[in-house]
Amino acid sequence: MLELKNLTFSAEDGGKAEIIRNIDLVLPEDRFIVITGPNGGGKSTLAKLIAGIEQPTSGRIIFNGEDITGRSITERARMGIGFAFQQPVRFKGLTVLDLLRIAAGKTLSVSEACEYLSEVGLCAKDYIKREVNSSLSGGELKRIEIATILARDVSLAVFDEPEAGIDLWSFTNLIRIFEKMRSHEGGRTVVVISHQERILNIADEIIVLTDGAVTARGSRDEIMPQIIGSKYAENICPKID
Amino acid sequence: MLKMDPVQKQLLQEVAELHDIPEGAYNLRANGQSVGRNTTANIDIQSKTDVSGIDIRIKDGTKNESVHIPVVLSESGLKETVYNDFYIGDGCDVLIVAGCGIDNCGTQDSEHDGVHRFFVGKNSKVRYVEKHYGSGDGSGKRILDPVTEVYIDEGSTVEMEMVQIKGVDSTHRTTLGELKKDAKLVVRERLMTHGEQNAFSTYKITLNGDGSSADVVSRSVARDNSYQKLDLCVLGNAACSGHTECDSIIMDNGRILAVPSLEANSVDAALVHEAAIGKIAGEQLIKLMTLGLTEAEAEEQIITGFLK
Hints:
The structure holds 2 protein chains of 2 kinds.
Chain A: E1 2-13, E2 15-27, E3 32-36, H1 43-51, E4 58-63, E5 66-67, H2 73-79, E6 81-84, H3 96-104, H4 110-119, H5 124-127, H6 138-151, E7 156-160, H7 168-183, E8 189-193, H8 197-200, E9 205-210, E10 213-219, H9 220-227
Parallel strand pairs in A: 3-8, 3-9, 6-7, 7-8
Antiparallel strand pairs in A: 1-2, 1-4, 4-5, 9-10
Chain B: H1 6-16, E1 25-30, E2 33-38, E3 43-47, E4 53-58, E5 63-73, E6 79-88, E7 93-103, E8 110-120, E9 125-135, E10 142-144, E11 147-152, E12 157-166, E13 170-179, E14 184-193, E15 198-207, E16 213-222, E17 227-236, E18 241-250, E19 255-264, E20 270-278, H2 282-290, H3 295-306
Parallel strand pairs in B: 1-5, 4-6, 5-7, 6-8, 7-9, 8-10, 8-11, 9-12, 10-13, 11-13, 12-14, 13-15, 14-16, 15-17, 16-18, 17-19, 18-20
Antiparallel strand pairs in B: 1-2, 3-4
């Protein structure tokens, strides 16, 4: 369980801009939560605050009863927080297998690594030895990014706009991966930052973040009618429905 | 005949990945003397009579054989220049492993300069692996100034893997290549400098024959106060294709000068060069930290992968 208590984040950018304002949130276990809202509303910043990539100006972050506000990225990762980047990072020389092994924190056998890859719809034999460099497409990188989260034993997984920069074909596969993840939660909290209707449609709970504050929160059935067709619940392409 | 102390064995392991005597042809040199040699029906090794060094002759059609010629120096103050010539026949497919390990615990500089010349016949395939390594905590420097010349005849391919990862204080590496029709040269250089080290690496590859090609890629890391100059030049004198790439990471106060250059003397020469120098991207470190590594562990993983 993750609790955000009176969380505020200001960025020094010319003047002082408050990006996250006094957020109080409890994200319970075993839930699939989607955070939506307009661009610039603070969604990605909130995800980075949870992962420890940004430090809050004030407020506390409590994870499974422990105050992690001052904990480093590494410490939070080791406590079971996973973070999938909006723009997956490329590495010259590191292979997909290397990355999955680092994620798993142990010497993963090739067949174990293959399981994670096949879960995200990649044929392991084509990818396991590939370098995580610019030879991979955006969709491939995104799926490898998700596989690194699967390879870790996390109790909280945060995905920052997983649909960004991928093609339609990969998007439909992405939905399948999330649907599968949702049905195998096993105590895991999954937080997805997205304004895609298809992703919002599989949420247990939807949080709307506007101008750094929570402006709506509730079950999918409560929130979807309020936001459907707006910029907070976009249809990636009417043809694929 | 083959007597090596533990330090020498460690050096041998580092430069040639050998725990003991290799299979096939070999010549092991320790502290300026040949300490073991083996020839095969197809590969002959003879000592030179005019200068220090050996001639290695590989018969036409020799396939799936290897030659190991590692050198180890564990005596402080030893300086040597060794001339090794490889004559590789037509239609061969061979692996050549060279390399030098210097352990200097003393106060005097130790230096090994290997001058390797390769004369490759027609339609052969040669893979050449060279590793340089230094160890020892003496104030004496460990110096390696290798010269590699490769002359590739029609239709042959030479792949060179040159690695210098640790402990060499000063190095001037010079690699020259001349290629005839349909010959191909692939070079993968891996260089890491640390402490106060200096490394200079110069390549001059001349593509003389139609259909010849060269792909020279140097990946390097300069840490601490070290300095590197990478000078990669490809000349195209025919309908050929050439590519040079310097890709470097700088850390701490490390400095790198990368000078990839091209010279086209034929309208049909297609030549490309690339160079990039930068520190490790912050997002790479963050990504690996979100997977549970510390910043130092993440840095090590990135460098190890980069230089793999």
